Amino acid sequence: MKTRVLFIALIVLLLAAQAGATDFKGKTIAGVRFPFFIPLHNGSNFTTVTGNREPFMMGWNFGAEVKRGFGSHVLIGLTGNYLTTHDDTTAVENAGGEFTSSKHATAKLTGLMFGLEGQWYYEPDWRFQPYLLAGVGLDFWKVKNVVSSVSHKASDFNFKIGTGLLCPINDKFAIDAQVKLTTDIVHLSQDFPAGFYGPNDWKKYSNRPFKAYLEPTLGLNLFFGGELDSDHDGVPDSKDKCPNTPAGVKVDKTGCPLDSDGDGVPDYLDKCPDTPKGVKVDANGCPIDSDGDGVPDYLDKCPDTPKGVKVDAEGCAPDADGDGVPDQLDKCPDTPKGAPVDANGCPLDSDGDGVPDYLDKCPGTPKGVKVDADGCPLVKKITEKITLNIKYATNSYEPDAKSKLQLDSIAERIIAYPETKIEIRGYTDNRGTAAKNMTLSENRANGVMSYLVSKGVPAVQLTAQGYGMDPKYYVADNATEAGRAKNRRVEIESVK
């Protein structure tokens, strides 16, 4: 897992650099760095009285260094670091992923590290400087029992590899992000008795809790030395306000490329070198023409002209009817003043009834409804109560053919006025039981509702209710067949 983390860190640092320059030749660099080091577990061979585990946690790392530049690519220097952390008696694996704490500690680890390192920088002309490093050094370790205060020491010769990214702040200071892997390769001395920390002494690396450690750190570097001119424009870096000027470009006394017309685009890139002062320009130094009509914005009085439209010297296209659509694109050139139009210059007809919005007195007409010259439905809104005496087939609740013709007309009137709410009521005569008649009246009301929905009436405009043989709703005498026929009815009425 830690190897994968290291690999990802290396790749990120290697891909991070883009543009700028620092010449190290003749420079002395002093720096400090912090904050972390991560012991890398030596494997399952390390055993304590509590079992196989990875004891030491991520800890603090404080260092100082001094380096000397030997050319534009190479730095060689000395480093010194102080490391400290604790173990964790509860950790079985991945202790290095937790930060040091004495809460569960039995031992404190400290170390003094001294190294000789060389750093190789990829490209001196980049502003941010990625580099590789390698070196050797000496490690002096001490493990102290936090209970008894007894301590023992070991020393080793090590080998180092790593990578980093140097980020200059100015010509004197730089931030140095670095990841370094140190591996102890030669045992020099130790006085660990068997059982003090691990079952054996520390002569063999397999008996130690770790033999390598990772140092992810940030450094602050201070540069000493002569004046540099990284871009070779004749202006030293300390005075150069444009330190990345391309070779051969003429510069002013501050090291910046000349810009004769002051448009922010240097002369060597400016394809329109005589632009008037204050005019906004593109990357080529030419006045911006946002609508592409050939008239630059600073002269264009109609800056949003559609593509391909011919314009006058002021960037405007003729628009005889003043609807905002130039004559060249206007398919309705005589639109009355103030009438809203579409992209073709024609009056809007939001409900698609053939009457433009500016003339439409009924602007929300549903699609397909026939309207008059004012855009209003030809059919009248239902305001009266409509009674249907439907002749039903046996065991059927579907309206008969004659009633369907009447319902078709009713459906048109409902659809034409979407704000209308219709109640459909079913009634019976007094023959049969109350329960049976209630069901019958409900089914017949629902049958009418279903037929209206099938003709396009939105269901949200309709409600159906059965009232059965309730005497208060009789409209005729049930003593006669004619009276009972009148009572067996369906009523349709607007409730809104």
TrEMBL record:
<feature type="domain" description="OmpA-like">
    <location>
        <begin position="379"/>
        <end position="496"/>
    </location>
</feature>
<dbReference type="Pfam" id="PF02412">
    <property type="entry name" value="TSP_3"/>
</dbReference>
<dbReference type="InterPro" id="IPR006664">
    <property type="entry name" value="OMP_bac"/>
</dbReference>
<keyword id="KW-0812">Transmembrane</keyword>
<keyword id="KW-0406">Ion transport</keyword>
<keyword id="KW-1134">Transmembrane beta strand</keyword>
<keyword id="KW-0732">Signal</keyword>
<dbReference type="InterPro" id="IPR027385">
    <property type="entry name" value="Beta-barrel_OMP"/>
</dbReference>
<keyword id="KW-0813">Transport</keyword>
<keyword id="KW-0998">Cell outer membrane</keyword>
<feature type="signal peptide">
    <location>
        <begin position="1"/>
        <end position="21"/>
    </location>
</feature>
<dbReference type="InterPro" id="IPR003367">
    <property type="entry name" value="Thrombospondin_3-like_rpt"/>
</dbReference>
<dbReference type="InterPro" id="IPR036737">
    <property type="entry name" value="OmpA-like_sf"/>
</dbReference>
<dbReference type="InterPro" id="IPR011250">
    <property type="entry name" value="OMP/PagP_B-barrel"/>
</dbReference>
<dbReference type="InterPro" id="IPR006665">
    <property type="entry name" value="OmpA-like"/>
</dbReference>
<protein>
    <submittedName>
        <fullName>Outer membrane beta-barrel domain-containing protein</fullName>
    </submittedName>
</protein>
<feature type="region of interest" description="Disordered">
    <location>
        <begin position="313"/>
        <end position="341"/>
    </location>
</feature>
<dbReference type="InterPro" id="IPR028974">
    <property type="entry name" value="TSP_type-3_rpt"/>
</dbReference>
<dbReference type="Pfam" id="PF13505">
    <property type="entry name" value="OMP_b-brl"/>
</dbReference>
<dbReference type="GO" id="GO:0005509">
    <property type="term" value="F:calcium ion binding"/>
</dbReference>
<dbReference type="InterPro" id="IPR050330">
    <property type="entry name" value="Bact_OuterMem_StrucFunc"/>
</dbReference>
<dbReference type="GO" id="GO:0009279">
    <property type="term" value="C:cell outer membrane"/>
</dbReference>
<keyword id="KW-0472">Membrane</keyword>
<dbReference type="GO" id="GO:0046930">
    <property type="term" value="C:pore complex"/>
</dbReference>
<dbReference type="GO" id="GO:0007155">
    <property type="term" value="P:cell adhesion"/>
</dbReference>
<dbReference type="GO" id="GO:0015288">
    <property type="term" value="F:porin activity"/>
</dbReference>
<keyword id="KW-0626">Porin</keyword>
<dbReference type="Pfam" id="PF00691">
    <property type="entry name" value="OmpA"/>
</dbReference>
<dbReference type="GO" id="GO:0006811">
    <property type="term" value="P:monoatomic ion transport"/>
</dbReference>
